Structure formats: C-alpha cells, structure tokens
Amino acid sequence: MNDPKSDASLPRLRLLLSFVTPHWRVLLLGLVLGLFANAIGLATPMVTKWVLDTLGAAASMTQPIAVLLALVVVGAAVSLWQWVLLGTLAERVVLDARTSVIRRYLAAKIGELLKRPSGELVTRVTSDTALLHQASGSIVGLINSTLALLGTLVLMGVLDLVLLGSTLVAVIVVAIIMATLMPSIAKAQEAAQESVGRLGGSLEGALRAIRTVKASRAEVRQGERIIADARDSAAHSVRAARRTASVWTIAWTGIQLSIIAILGIGAWRAQLGLLELSSLIAFLLYAFQLMGPISELTQNVTALQAGIAAASRIREIEAIAVEPRVAAAPAGPSTADQTGYDDSPVLVFRAVTARYAPDTAPAVRGIDLTIPRRGHTAIVGPSGAGKTTLFSLVLRFLEPTEGELLLDGRPYATYSHSEVRAKLAYVEQETPVVPGTIRDNLLFTHPDATDDELRAVLKAVRLDEKIDSLDEGLDTSLSSSAVSGGQRQRIALARAILRTPEVLLLDEATAQVDGLTEAALHDCIRDRAAVGAVVTIAHRLSTVLDADSIAVMEDGRIRAQGTHSELLATDDLYRQLVEALRIADSREHGQQSDDRRRGEQPDDRRRGEQPDDRRRGEQPDDRRRGEQPDGDLELAGRR
Ligand SMILES: Nc1ncnc2c1ncn2[C@@H]1O[C@H](COP(=O)(O)OP(=O)(O)OP(=O)(O)O)[C@@H](O)[C@H]1O
Questions:
Q1: Whose CA is nearest to atom 5 of ligand 1?
Q2: What ipTM goes with this model?
Q3: Which of 43, 63, 89, 239 could form a disulfide with 188 if both were Cys (CB 3.0 to 4.6 A apart)?
Q4: Is the CB of residue 631 below 6 angstroms from any atom belonging to ligand 1?
Q5: What's the 504 CA to ligand 1 centre distance in angstroms?
Q6: Distance from C-alpha of 511 to C-alpha of 515, rounded to nearest angstrom
Q7: pLDDT per residue over 596-630, tens digit each?
Q8: Is the CB of 575 under 6 A from ligand 1?
Q9: CATH (residue range 10-185+246-319)
C-alpha cells in the first residue's frame, strides 16, 4: 500500500499536491527561477571552454571572463530569490494545513473526536504538518533537478557522445538502485510517523492521569510503555536513515567511478586527437555538476515520500464528520413565540432512541420526557443508565436515531446546533476550565459580559472575596495553584449562569465537593429554577431532595418520574438509590464533622487534593467505564 509504484501512489501524490496547488503562482515562479538558475549552471562549463579556447588564439579573454563572472553573480541572485520564495511557500503550506486541521477538530462531532486519543490528534497538527515543509518545495526541486540532469546529459552529448555513453551507464545503475530503495524508505518514514502519533496519544493520556500513575507506582511501567513507541519510531527512522545513506553512498560512488572512467577514456581520446582538451575539461565539469541534480533528486524524492505520508495522515482528518452549521429544516414559529410568555415546556423528548454507533445497542430508548420552563428536574439512575447520553442529546452532541427533541415547541431539526446551544448552559461533571485567566473562563460563553456582571455571578457562587484576595484578581491564571478544585467548579458554575440561560444543565460532580461549593451549587440551582429550567444529573441526596421532579433511569429508559415522596412510595430502584445516596451523604457529613472537630475546614482539607484536577486525568470514556465512588453506591443501591 505504501509502495509508490502501487496504484495508491498517484492518489497519494495528489493528496500532497492538493496542499500546494492553492499556491500555484508562487510555485510556478519558483520553477521558472529554478530553470533559470539551472540554465546558468549549465552554461558555465561551456563558457569555461570558451575561456580555454581563447588561450591560444589572439582573441581577447576579457569577454568570456566577463560573461563567466556575470553568470556567477546572476546565478547567485536567482538562487537566493528562489530559496526565499520556496521557503516562504513551505511555511504557508504548513500554516494552511495546521489552520484547516485545527478548524476541523473544533467543528467536528464530539463522538468522532472521542474515538481517537487526543495526543495523537495533536501530533497531526504539530509533527505531520511540519513534514509538508520540505515536501512542498520538493515538487519544484524534483522538476528542476530532473531538467538539470537532462540538460547536463544533453550538453555532455554535444561535447562527446562516447564519454556520454560511459556516463549514462553510471547514471542508469544509480537510478535503478534508487528506485529499488526509495519505496522502503517511504514505508519506514510512514511507520515512524505513525509511532510518533501513538507516542503523542499515550504520553498525553499518561500526563493527564499523572496522579493515578504515581499513586499506582506505575511511573516506570507507564514510562516504558510510552518509550516503546518512541523506540519504535526511532527504529523505523534508523531504517530510513540507513537506506537513505546507502542511496547517497551508491550515488556518490557511481558518479566518482564514472568521473574516473571519463578521465581515462577522455585522455585516451584526446591523445588520439578525437577530443579537444577544452572539451574534456568542460565534460569533466559537467560530470562533477551531475552530482548536484542527482543529490537534489535523492533529497527531493525522500522529502516527497515523507510529505506524501504526512499529507495522507492530515487528509484523514477530513474524514472526521463535522456538525452541520445550518438547520436541517427552516425555522418555524415556536410555541413560545406564538404565545409570548407561556407555560409550555421548554424541552420535550418524544420517543427518543439514540445509539453511539449504528451497530451498537441503543444507549437510551423510547425516552418521553418533558422539562417545564421553570423548575428543577433531577435525573437519577445507576451507572450506565443513560443520564449523560440524555444530556448529550439535549446539547446535540448526539442525534436521536428515532424520535425527536423539541426546544421551545420547535423540533431540533429546525435549529442549527449553535442556536440550540445558545439557549442552554452546561456545567460538565469534570468542570474543566479552559486555558487562560479566571476572566477568560468567565467570559468564555459570553465574551461581551461587563465587569459588573462578572462580579454578580462571582458573588452568587461565593467567589467574590476569594478573587479580591488574589494579587491579580480576575486576571489570575488558572494554571496557577492559587485556585483550588472546588473554586474551579464554582468558576465553571459562574460561567454557566452569567446570562440566564433557558435551560441550565448541570452534571453534578460524583466526587465529594467542599461545603462552600456544595452550598453555592444549591443556591444557584434554587435561584435559577425560580426563573428558568434547571436539569441536573444528581449525585447528591440534597440535590435530589431539592428537585421539583425526578426522573429515574435504568438501562436506557425512564422507568419512573415524580416527586421525591411519590417515588419513595412507588419505585423500588428509587428507594435503593436514595438509600445509597443517604449513606454517601452521611459518610460525607460525618467526615465534615470530624474535620470540624479537628478544627479543619473541609475546603482546606481538600485543597491539597483538588477534585477537579484529579478528575481532569480521566477520559470521558474512562469515567464511564470506571466506577465513581457514588456510582458504586448507586450500584450497591440497586443490588
Ligand atoms: N461514547 C460512547 N460510545 C459508545 N457507548 C457509549 C458512549 N458513551 C456511553 N456509552 C454507553 O451508553 C450507555 C449509557 O451511558 P451514559 O454515559 O449515558 O450513562 P450514565 O447514566 O451517564 O452513566 P454514569 O453515571 O456512569 O456516567 C452505557 O451503556 C455506555 O456504555
């Protein structure tokens, strides 16, 4: 498949060309400059012969020497221009490729991104694109060096056909060896790039889970596993380097042998009076020059091979499906629009079934759920029941395979993804913060919010005093350790409530949170539920007790819905879940009162171990697979 001689080689070359063709004008100019520089290079030995021919004659040498000097100066200027031009072009090609891949990632469907390790996705932007650098100029280089080679051979033929014959033998031998070795060089390079991709994936995963790695005393084992990919890459690169070195050595030796042959045969022919001495010298100059196009050819073919491999890896990203930017159907009036202020539900699930892949079992099935415009709806259920999937459907990370969702009385299909999300606010379970300052994070959803608005939400999540106490206030970088895990959760919450959303979706942290964060969370839920819809994936008894309505999920279905007391009276699973949450809650409160007895604040105790940081190490899938403390209890409850 990687054999450039195979049928796949042409489409793969076309892939590489697709990166440079947008810059065809620059490429053409580079080619013309290259041809010009070649012509100058080819003319030099002929002018040298001219100088030598004037030696015995009465004619002046000034003219040919002046021409020779002019050729050198113009040749240098043209080469410089071409160098700069192609260097700039290469950087633009790399930039274009990076821009397109980065945009693709951010526009991609979430499920598509989660299929691949993020570190591997990163290497496609960083290291693969860098390989396009040399490859982009190599196309021009390849044409130039081929023409230079042909031109040199033609001029050699003009000087002496017999000598050309012996040169051609050497060139053909070198070409056959190169053609044999080049495909395996390409294969080795592609394998090296793939190993670098895997290395990026495993290293990134290990660094994100560094606490788990250390706590499991798995540094050495994990390190070895990652280093194995680095070794793999090195082994492939060494193989490529060895073969490249062989190609070079063979090319050099071939040319040197042919020069010796030319010298011998040429001297013999000159002695016989069949060849002028000046022609022999000019021929030898061409023979030395031959090394230029041949080594250029070798370099360019190598760069092209690496570029082709990189181009196909980058273009693979084009296969990642992106979210549509416009609504599938034109937007009609919503129930809310028709009635103005109304009590119609804000969100409705109608017989929704969804699966993550066509050949897998549905993650949720036949979901009928109505979320009122005001109030707090809690979703509870054992691990794997489909709670997160429900949120993914609301946020349109996932599309239903059957049934439909309605927002403000209108089917989701009549909205674009962006329009749907504009009406929602979401606090992830891991409450990740984006790179940057506290201000950057707060303004992430609404960049136009004023300082007063920021202050109001910070007060709402009880972070105002903390921010004031920081030297740099809102401009404190979140990479600094001055902000604890609980505080990060509150920042995420503040971001979500900055502008009152129609629906606040809150995936409650499963790990214990500090008292202050828990209190802030509950105040926010209560305040927001009074004016809008709040939907929580509840992991805490107090959140469940706060809810106006509770949906109990099991095996992808909603098995019961009602108030706490209704469900307690009617649903076995709910009773078990509540019992498990009660145990968890009493354990936590027990722990908190122990803290108080010891004179510690729960918040202080946990500051050393930031829940948010801890969870940042987990992939969403890991989280799903792994049992959270409360997840265990939920299951225990079920048992
Ligand atoms: N990205 C995914 N790809 C394939 N299957 C998935 C994916 N995410 C979830 N599932 C499956 O869908 C089902 C519902 O999972 P979901 O994450 O919605 O459950 P949950 O109730 O949120 O669980 P938890 O409380 O453990 O987070 C599970 O069987 C799970 O294995």
A1: 356
A2: 0.97
A3: 239
A4: yes
A5: 21
A6: 13
A7: 444 444 443 333 333 333 333 333 333 333 333 33
A8: no
A9: 1.20.1560.10
